[in-house]
Design goal:
It is built from five helices and nine strands. It is α+β, with helices and mostly antiparallel strands and 218 residues long. The protein folds into two domains: 56 residues; 122 residues, no CATH class. It starts with 18 loop residues before the first helix and ends in an 8-residue tail after the last helix. 24% of the residues are buried.
Length: 218
């Protein structure tokens, strides 16, 4: 049967007769890890509508194959962990979010008019910090606000418009930079003692990570 995988990618190494086999092995390994993760997540969710569950399971094949293919592309910053289908990079000693720099956040987003780009959101839950990827799906130029697909409305300087679901949770939109986006893509987490175990990105966050322009973050 003819392979459905994309053609081999030159990773800067000498091509040999085993290159296709190694690539397909990594592709299969990534698919398996992603399927295991996503099916486990779906099993823990509550669905009031069975058709929604059916649609989500039906769409997994497309998105998982696409994610596995994107993982195998050369990346300028991040390193692939094919066993866990995750991005790896050295973790900073402390969270790189600069929460006091509202002016810099406002200046960056004042020049941003493109929908769908990946942005970073800082989450602080009683001193446990991490940065999540989200995407812009609406911009209100008159009100100087923007709406994220998961986290909702923010002012242009990064402050949450609506109250957080819990008073114990602080949420702020960040100005994208290398340190912030690396932390978000790798699931880096911290508490008052320093580094903690990285959290696992959802398939949606992984798809957003593949579209980041690491030169301009646009």
């Amino acid at each position: 049967m003819k392979s459905t995988l994309p053609p081999p990618i030159d990773l800067g190494q000498q091509v040999n007769i085993f290159s296709d086999d190694v690539r397909q092995l990594h592709f299969a390994e990534l698919c398996n890890a992603l399927y295991e993760r996503e099916l486990s997540a779906l099993a823990q969710r509550k669905f009031n509508n069975i058709s929604l569950l059916q649609r989500q399971i039906g769409g997994l094949k497309h998105y998982i194959k696409r994610a596995a293919y994107q993982f195998l592309q050369p990346h300028p910053v991040l390193v692939l962990d094919s066993h866990n289908a995750s991005w790896q990079h050295k973790q900073a000693a402390h969270c790189p979010a600069k929460l006091e720099d509202f002016a810099a956040v406002a200046q960056w987003f004042a020049q941003q008019h493109e929908l769908g780009i990946a942005v970073a959101v800082h989450i602080n839950t009683l001193g446990n910090e991490h940065i999540e990827l989200d995407s812009i799906d609406r911009i209100d130029s008159e009100a100087h606000t923007l709406h994220l697909n998961k986290f909702g409305w923010f002012t242009q300087d990064g402050k949450k418009c609506e109250a957080a679901p819990s008073t114990n949770v602080q949420v702020q939109l960040l100005k994208p930079n290398k340190a912030v986006m690396v932390a978000a893509c790798c699931g880096h987490s911290w508490n008052y003692k320093g580094k903690t175990q990285p959290h696992t990105l959802s398939l949606r966050e992984l798809m957003l990570s593949f579209g980041i322009n690491w030169k301009t973050f646009r």
